[in-house]
C-alpha cells in the first residue's frame, strides 16, 4: 500500500517510515531537509534510503505542488513541523506558523482534493497547556501555554474541521504525542542533552527546580500507535499517545546516571516560558481505539537511546 510521510527526515518521521517499509508498504517521504546537505537528515534517513520501497522528495510543503505527491496514497502521515516549545517565543515564530499551520492547511486541502482516505496528523500534548485536571483526557479544555502549542492546536483543529464536513472524503486521526524520546531524538530535547552530558561531562542545564514532570514516551511505542492510527475506523478523532509513567526531571537525572553508569553533571538555570509543570496522558481512548499500551519503560528506553548515542560516537 502506498503511504506518504511528511517530515520524514526528522526524528519521528524517519522511525515511522522505517516501520511502514518493514511492513511492506511503499513510502513516499517528503522533507525540506536534504540528506545531501544536512547531517541530521542523512543520519535519520540512512535506514529508509537503503530500502527499495522508499522514495524521498526534498521539498517545502508550503511551496511544492502537493497533489502529485499525495495522489493514490492510502494514508498520509503528516508529521512535518517546526517543533520545540521554548524557541517558539522567539523570532522564529513566523516559521512555526508557516510550517505548522499554513503547510498543514495545504496538506489537508490537497488530501481532500485527491480523496486520500486517511490523514494522520502529529499533534502534541502541548495543546493541553495549563488546563486543569490530570491525567489529560482528549475532551478536556485546551489552553496552550506556548506559541508552539497554539500552532499545533490550530493545525489539529483545522484537520478535524475538514474531516467533519458533511462531504469529507478524508478521515483524520490527530495524535497528541507526549514528549517522545529514543534513538535519534532531537538534540534540543532534555533526554538527548542528559545523555550527552553523561557522555561528555559537559553539564546539562536544568530549567527551574527540576520538579517538572513529563509523560516521556518511547518512540517505538509512538510509532506503533501511529501505524495503528492509519488503519482504524474513525472519522475525526484526537487521541493521546503517552508513555504511561511520568517522572520528574530530578528522577530522570538519577535514572540516567544509573543506566549510563556515569555522573550527569547539571547546572541550574532559570525556568523557561511556556514550560508546563506536568504532562500526563489519560490513555483509555488510545487503548480502545489504537490498542496503544506502552511497552517500553523509561529505564529500557533510556538504555536504548544511550546505546545508540555511544555507537554513533564510537563508530
Ligand atoms: P523533527 O524536527 O525531528 O522533524 C520534523 C521534520 O519536519 C524536519 O525534518 C523538518 O525539516 C520537516 N519540516 C518542517 N517544516 C517543513 C516544511 N515546511 N516542509 C517540509 N518539511 C518540513 O521533529 P520531531 O520531534 O520528529 O516531531 C515530529 C512531529 O511530531 C512534529 O509535528 C512535532 O510537532 C510532533 N511532536 C513531537 C513530539 C516530540 O516529543 N518529538 C511531541 C509531540 C508532538
Ligand atoms: C517536547 C517536544 O520538544 C515538543 O516538540 C512536543 O510537542 C512536546 O514535547 C509535547 O509533548 O507536546 P518538552 O516537553 O518541552 O517538549 O520536551 P523536552 O525538550 O524534552 O523538555 C522536557 C523538560 O525538560 C522540560 O520541562 C524542559 O524545560 C526541560 N529541559 C529541557 C531542561 O531542563 N533542560 C534542557 O536543556 C532541555
From TrEMBL:
Transmembrane segments: none annotated. This is NAD-dependent epimerase/dehydratase family protein. It holds the Pfam family Epimerase. It comes from Actinomadura miaoliensis. It comes from the Bacteria. Residues 4-242 form the NAD-dependent epimerase/dehydratase domain. InterPro entries: Epimerase_deHydtase, Lipid_A_modif_metabolic_enz, NAD(P)-bd_dom_sf, Sc_DH/Rdtase_CS.
Amino acid at each position: 500500500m502506498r503511504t506518504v510521510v511528511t517530515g520524514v527526515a526528522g526524528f519521528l518521521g524517519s522511525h515511522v517510515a522505517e516501520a511502514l517499509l518493514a511492513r511492506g508498504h511503499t513510502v513516499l517521504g517528503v522533507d525540506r531537509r536534504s540528506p545531501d546537505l544536512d547531517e541530521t537528515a542523512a543520519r535519520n534517513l540512512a535506514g529508509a534510503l537503503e530500502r527499495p520501497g522508499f522514495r524521498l522528495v526534498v521539498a517545502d510543503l508550503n511551496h511544492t505542488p502537493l497533489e502529485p505527491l499525495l495522489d493514490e496514497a492510502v494514508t498520509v502521515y503528516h508529521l512535518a513541523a517546526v517543533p520545540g516549545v521554548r524557541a517558539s517565543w522567539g523570532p522564529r515564530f513566523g516559521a512555526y506558523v508557516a510550517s505548522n499551520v499554513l503547510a498543514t492547511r495545504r496538506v489537508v486541502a490537497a488530501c481532500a482534493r485527491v480523496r486520500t482516505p486517511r490523514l494522520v496528523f502529529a499533534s502534541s500534548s502541548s495543546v493541553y497547556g495549563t488546563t486543569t485536571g490530570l491525567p489529560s483526557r482528549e475532551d478536556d479544555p485546551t489552553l496552550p501555554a506556548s506559541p508552539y502549542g497554539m500552532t499545533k492546536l490550530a493545525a489539529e483543529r483545522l484537520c478535524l474541521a475538514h474531516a467533519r464536513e458533511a462531504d469529507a472524503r478524508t478521515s483524520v486521526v490527530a495524535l497528541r504525542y507526549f514528549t517522545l524520546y529514543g534513538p535519534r531524538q532531537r538534540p534540543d530535547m532534555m533526554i538527548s542533552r542528559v545523555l550527552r552530558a553523561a557522555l561528555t561531562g559537559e553539564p546539562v542545564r536544568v530549567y527551574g527546580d527540576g520538579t517538572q514532570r513529563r509523560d516521556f514516551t518511547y518512540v517505538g511505542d509512538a510509532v506503533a500507535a501511529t501505524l495503528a492510527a492509519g488503519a482504524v475506523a474513525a472519522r475525526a478523532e484526537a487521541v493521546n499517545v503517552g508513555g504511561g509513567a511520568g517522572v520528574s526531571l530530578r528522577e530522570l537525572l538519577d535514572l540516567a546516571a544509573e543506566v549510563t553508569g556515569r555522573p550527569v553533571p547539571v547546572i541550574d538555570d532559570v525556568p523557561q516560558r511556556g514550560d508546563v509543570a506536568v504532562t500526563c496522558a489519560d490513555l483509555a481512548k488510545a487503548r480502545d481505539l489504537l490498542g496503544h499500551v506502552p511497552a517500553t519503560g523509561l529505564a529500557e528506553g533510556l538504555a536504548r537511546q544511550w546505546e545508540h548515542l555511544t555507537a554513533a560516537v564510537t563508530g
